[in-house]
Amino acid sequence: MSSYQKEQIESFSMVRKHIETLTTLERKAFESEISDYLSFRDEVDAFLFEHFSAVCTQECYQDSVSACCSREGIITFFGDIVVNVLVSQNNEIKSLINALQRPNSGFKCVYLGNNGCMWRVKPIVCEMFLCKQARSNVFENKPVAGQVWEELKQRRKVYTWPDRPVLFDNLERYFMDAGYTSSLMYLHNSPGLLNVKKQAGVKKDKKPF
């Protein structure tokens, strides 16, 4: 098992363990916190399905030429894991952990199953990645779609880019305040993202939500 897989297992396990201890009201507070983000993800899903399902699925993934889901090539934020655990069934999280516990000697992502990505709400880095060829195939013929995509990329920052209070920062801070640490807490560990906060004057709140 690689270090990549170990840190993913540790984060999934701690998030699942803590969420199982929440009261009904506490869980509802979590669900309310991520509801707007889930609506955004629904919009992104609909956009990608409308404009890229043929290009990415039929022309690329099914022909095994895709480099999108490369082995240990994706960045998983701690917030990605929290969101996915909150919306997933226990058996779905168990399947992810089981996949992580198996040696991955291939060239594809450990989360890639027979039916595609095993996450219910896949990591935002994966969701928002479009290769140059796919963008050219679609946006050259549909410039308006290209404009919509740029707007979606900017909206993504409202949840993930810590130049203001954002969801992924709040989720990390909640678990840190509860006594957890993870190498995937990039919004509190990454020198680059910490500098973004510093430059923007973002201060730590007493309670994230």
Architecture blueprint of SSEs:
Layout (H helix, E strand, L loop, with lengths): L2 H17 L4 H38 L16 H10 L2 H12 L10 E2 L2 E2 L6 H4 L4 H8 L3 H18 L6 H11 L8 H4 L1 H10 L9
Helix pairs in contact: 1-3, 1-4, 2-7, 3-8
From the N-terminal CA to the C-terminal CA, the straight-line distance is 36 Å
Strand content: under 5%
Order of helices and strands: HHHHEEHHHHHH
Structural category is mainly alpha
Work out the radius of gyration.
Answer: 18 Å
- Main β sheet profile: 2 strands, antiparallel
Number of helix segments?
Answer: 10
| 3D shape | globular
Task: Determine the oligomeric state from the structure.
Answer: single chain
- What is the average of the pLDDT values? 90
Helix content: 55-70%
Give the strand order, joined by hyphens, for the main sheet.
1-2
Low-pLDDT stretches: none
Number of strands: 2
What does this structure look like?
- By secondary structure, this protein is mostly helical.
- It has a domain at 3-145.
- Helix content is 63%, strand content 2%.
- It is built from ten helices and two strands.
- It has helices at residues 3-19, 24-61, 78-87, 90-101, 124-127, 132-139, 143-160, 167-177, 186-189, 191-200; strands at 112-113, 116-117.
- It has a two-stranded antiparallel ribbon with strand order 1-2.
